[in-house]
UniProtKB/TrEMBL annotation:
Enzyme Commission numbers on file: 1.14.18.1
Gene3D superfamilies in alphabetical order: Di-copper center containing domain from catechol oxidase
Protein name: tyrosinase
Domain Tyrosinase copper-binding as annotated: residue spans: 315-326
Membrane spanning stretches: none
Catalytic activity: 2 L-dopa + O2 = 2 L-dopaquinone + 2 H2O; L-tyrosine + O2 = L-dopaquinone + H2O
Family: Belongs to the tyrosinase family.
Entry GO MF terms: metal ion binding; tyrosinase activity
Top-level taxon of origin: Eukaryota
Amino acid sequence: MVVLTRSLLPLTSLLVSSVTASPIGESFVKKIARQDGSFYAITGVNTGTVEPRLEIRELKQQPEAWNLFLLALQRFKAMDQSDKISFFQIAGIHGEPLIPWDGVQATGDASVGYCPHGSNLFGTWHKPYLAVFEQVLNLKAQEIAAEFPAGPTRDAYVNAASKLRLPFWDWALPRPSNEKILTPLLSDPTAEVTYPNGTTATIVNPLAGYTFHPLVPSDFGYPWSLWTHTARNPRTNTNPSLPDNIDGVESFLVGTYNGIRNTLYQILTQYQTFNQFSNTGSEQTEIGTLEGIHNIIHGSFGSGHMGYPAVAAFDPIFWLHHCNVDRIMNIFQAIYPDTFVTAHEQFGATYMNEPGDVWDAETPLAPFHSSTSGDFWTSNSARPIPVFGSTYPELVDNPSNDTIKERINALYAPAVTSLKKRQAGAEHKPRAYLAVIEAPFALDGTFSVDVFIGDITTDGANWPTDPNFVGAQTMLAKPGLTSNAVVKGSVVLTEALQKKYDAGSLKSLDVDAVVEYLKTQLHWRVEKVRLLPLLCSPMPVLTGICNRIGKSLLASRCPI
């Protein structure tokens, strides 16, 4: 039996890498834009109105919509896996089984999926990806609604189907201390539904996972070639019969919760360009990135499918997670409408590109067609928020910037945004403190850098529950992939420092005192979740981590 392990990696000097940029050019666009076949037009939901995607716990409060959602997802997942718009085929776009979708052949690295990570197109590529999933899901909901007996019940379900959109899971939502971040709606093994014939039933919760029907081992690399169903934080990679370690997922989410909220608030309230805000691979700043937060949530599922881009989309929770990522991106776009995707070289490969290619807002978001004739969605064409027939609660009715700011503050403003001297008569500018992490894009798979203030009192498996754990940055990659490209992320230290001051451990909030304190109390560890023995020798190392203490940022409530 091979037990999943988390290994510590040593730290060495920062590695600076360089790549040569080469534009994709018109030949690439022509090569993929017109291929033989009948193309699937991704339009989103066409029911005549633009409806908000709701947080899953809010959707649960609407009985007809919730029932339809569960039944539609169940039917969607049951589609023949050879169908182009089946759950299996759409999930497979993201990575394995590494086959063309909708006739779009590989023009890059055929050993990885279509999805760009660490790319200026990370956020916009997922817009039509979510749209095609939502489009098919809604079609299933409309089919089911029409099966209810004619009369008021059917009318209610038809109305609910017309408004049903893919819900999002807000992992940063304010919560009572006794409420789980991973809501049981997403993890309970069963769910209650009512079928159109009026019978009620307890079914396998369609949100809890996906069972392959069948599993074709050659579709996937090891160890996923062994798993007949998706897994969340499994205890081993050779015994699929063991239950998921959901408690371990929750522990990680709780441990990173404050750090995620702090970084989320920071990236929404401090101006960056769209490229800087959206991804870990282009023009990064110390403020943080949406993709960096997104990575932490993926990493919380350990060695399960969600932890690896090649197979993540087969777990239904992927779609609700990415719906929330899309929501945050759209909120950013509403606040800062004058910045968007600009040209940038790609340091990673996808099914459609090689490292060094330059992508911009007109690059085709392959394999997503906007028409049956083979036109592709681009970042520019997918830019309008309601283009796919959906929006988000914070953006309904095109609110003013002031209203959006109020909503951000109500949802995500941390208790402590800056440190100030409390001594009488002392003048002190607000300061926010960050640990800025620079690390390889890939290190033989997914890994995390965990940050602590104070002694580390737990073993690696329990670091997120350590009382001195502050936060983490996760880098997602498939096993065996190693990259010299350096990505940047940050962990906000401000709130943790305030707690240390309140407890008496930090004696002063003077900048010099904080800096000296962090020199001895700021620690980090590298957590590497492994599914299989290392594929390369010698073992790669984390090539750099940079801690910038005393970093001054203007901190106030929504300074935008």
